[in-house]
Hints:
The structure is a single chain. The chain has 269 residues and is α/β, with parallel strands linked by helices. Helix content is 32%, strand content 22%. It is built from nine helices and 14 strands. The strands form four sheets. A five-stranded mixed beta sheet has the order 4-3-5-14-6, sandwiched between helices. Strands 11-8-12-7-13 form a five-stranded mixed beta sheet. A two-stranded antiparallel ribbon has the order 1-2. A hairpin with a 5-residue loop joins strand 1 and strand 2. The longest helix has 15 residues. The chain is globular, with a radius of gyration of 22 Å. It is found in: Membrane.
Amino acid sequence: MVALLATAAAPALAQSGTPIKASIEKRDLRVGFTPGPYEDAFKAGAAPVLGAQGYRIAYAHFSTGLEVNKAVAFDEIDANVMQHSVYLKAYNERNGTDLVGIVQVPTPPMGLYSRKHKTLSAVRPGATVAVPNDPVNLERALKILRDAGWIGLKANANPVDVTELDVIANPSGIRIVPLEAAQAPRALDDVDFAAIQGNFAIFSGLKLTEALALEKMTAPYINVVAVRRGQAETPWAKAIVAAYRSDAFQAAIRADRFYDGFTLPDYFR
């Protein structure tokens, strides 16, 4: 098989003996997703643009970000759509991988939700608040609690180092409960409040408009399409970027009220 591949990849020769540059371009793309709205957005606006250019899309589904990043790193899939740049950087540093974001995508912000209380002012000493247990998203959750006036938070320049020990004041007397991020929606019946990532909130049927507070999302926390660094300049990777930046993709997102409240990349006009 190796010999056959090598032969197929060798440049063809013209009758004059001059090599003819091979022009075989990848047309089958494998794209991975975790639960959330990113696959639907891709199918609604980006996939039709890619399909019109002759690309065929195979969709792969994963339970966690660790799994889908590993799949890209080991060339099991070509790209994934599920994470922001801060998480991606932390993953690379911890796993010795070299994945890069090539284009931002519409992203729902993390929000503070409750089934037991209607307002933030309902918080009482001893109230339980579920937060993501991974440091990067824990920082986002703690900032929501800080902005609500529930806690004081020590300044930390590196999000991957944030822990509960960075909480330096707790005037509201809340009890912070770290959980696997995907479990937070199911914990709503057991805790007073939960800081839930936007993708998991939407996947579980929650609406952004139901959140008691939403994070003030900044650029590093807008999700990206991730690929291996060595593939970032390939024609197919550039085609994915162009598909997201296309007028057709932007029109599809703006036309669907489902995406109201999402943070939009700066290429949206």
